Amino acid sequence: MNLKWTSLSILLASALFLAACTSDEDNTKQKEDSTTEQQQPSEQTDGEQKEDDSTETIDEPVDDDSSEEPALREDEASLTYTLNGEQKEEIGYLTESDQQNYSLYKLDGYELTGEEPNKDALYATENDSVFMRIETISTDDADYEVILKNMMETMAAISIDEEPVTITEEGKLPAGEGIKNAVGYEVPKEIGTISGYVFERGDLIVRLTIFDRNDANLTDALLKMGETVNVK
Asked: Which residues, 6 or more positions from 227, have their beta carbon under 8 angstroms from its beta carbon?
């Protein structure tokens, strides 16, 4: 894919997303089986005396639900987005990343491809200069605050002499089941707008960067696909 944001895209790609990774933490779980002793009397055949001389040990099984697999995602999902002031509803199709541990619902007219290690690009097939960079990492391998700070610094570097605009308007931040701590910034440019987002969902920290053009205005469509990112 020939991405055309030249120096802006190169600058953003140089941000070391994985440099924020912290050391893994090992988690262990222990479970103990319960043992019940029961003594039953043994009766003598001559009827003269009885002795309790038998002991029975019963091992009761312990139910372990910790290994239960997550529910499979449906193959399709309805996505609603706004384009040039008009609300549209289309079907997104479940698509898995080839190099990262996530899947998302992709609308027709877009392609998902590996851009570089641990980074994917979801781009418009009719205009590949409009795209969304997707980076994900396990919460075991990184700290949310560090990833957020890295995104903010990158957006500040892109904006040069101006402060990035904090996204606060309802509907312009990632939202949906399981999404938390969503933060976004945008940097208006002459040819379009660059938007950066960070949020958590389950065991993933997700970072999205959208490169839009004024003649395309696909930020909301890309964001709606981006907020469906979840573990495979």
From this structure: 174, 175, 176, 179, 199
For 185, the token pair is 């910034």
Buried b (16+ CB within 10 A) or exposed e, 169-192: eeebbbeeeebeebbbbbbebeeb
Whose CA is closest to 110, among 7, 9, 231, 226?
Answer: 226
CATH of the domain at 189: 3.40.1000
What would the pLDDT profile of 81-99 be if each residue is shown by its tens digit?
999 999 999 999 999 999 9
Q: How many domains does the chain have?
A: 1
CA dist 144 and 61 (Å) reads: 39
pLDDT tens, residue by residue, 8-29: 444 444 443 333 333 344 443 4
Domain of 87, in residue numbers: 70-226
Q: What are phi and psi of 168, to 5 degrees?
A: -125, -15
Please indicate, yes or no, if residue 95 is contained in any of the structural domains: yes
